[in-house]
């Protein structure tokens, strides 16, 4: 065991006059209630079940009491939430007859497993019996349950990480698919057009070590956290990634732990098949990390959007989510 004051400096907690939370050693907590409220409403209002009898759908979120928070300790995200929910639903038979009912979820909490969450469905007072109640209890409840599984609430700044996305295809599977589509790839090249491109450079400083910051950029769970969106990330050379619901895609071309990340990177709206070359360099600055970004091959018309995207969704998102805030150069 190392003596007091010795060992890896990343794990040494110091008393600092500026009260800086070095490397997020201390517990930090952020309120995620507002984001969760809006996200839960949008999810529940999308519930719709249908069969030969008719259709059932959630028409109103009549009660949503509780709170949610996102916590960070030594770079690890921990989520707490507790909600008491009441929904209104409407059933419509194939002949046009309407029925009304309620759904109550009294214990949507991080402390409960999925099978411990109560979802009670009933008809409104004085409504006659209908087979649509069984439809709502089966298909409707099934959809609602899907929203509670793996619910990593508000991640980034309070954004939720939806149920885990489909895993990245293994390298062997990817090669087979790429070879099978080789003819299409050749066709794409043959009809390609040359576009004017430009180069951008950004520089920012984060209150954490190069090792911690490097992991943020390549770890799927952490990327989902600071982008507030599901992500698919294969963190090795040649590995693919997909962020922001497919708005950003690419491939890692070089990974040097704590030092460098190079990638092929593109916005979905760019000309098909066109990628920019993005290079991130991590420089240790005595307890802080300076990141230098160089982007080449960016469509000239997308220069400002790309610059702002990296600053907002990557740099600022990381600072706000993990507490690595520092001045911007």
Could you please say which CATH topology of the largest domain applies here? Alpha-D-Glucose-1,6-Bisphosphate, Chain A, domain 4
The CATH C-level name of the largest domain is Alpha Beta
- Please give the number of β-strands: 15
Distance between the termini: 39 Å
Name the CATH architecture of the largest domain: 2-Layer Sandwich
Return residue spans where pLDDT drops below 50 for at least 5 consecutive residues: 1-5, 7-25, 150-178, 182-192
In helices, the fraction of residues equals 25-40%
State the order of secondary-structure elements, H for helix, E for strand. Answer: EHEEEEEHEEHHEHHEEEEEEH
Integer-rounded radius of gyration: 24 Å
Tell me what portion of residues adopts beta-strand conformation: 35-45%
Largest sheet: 7 strands, antiparallel
Q: State the CATH superfamily name of the largest domain.
A: START domain
Q: How many structural domains are formed by the residues?
A: 2
Structural class: alpha+beta
Number of helical stretches of at least 4 residues: 7
Strand arrangement across the biggest beta sheet: 9-15-14-13-12-11-10
Mean pLDDT: 79
What general outline do the C-alpha atoms trace?
elongated
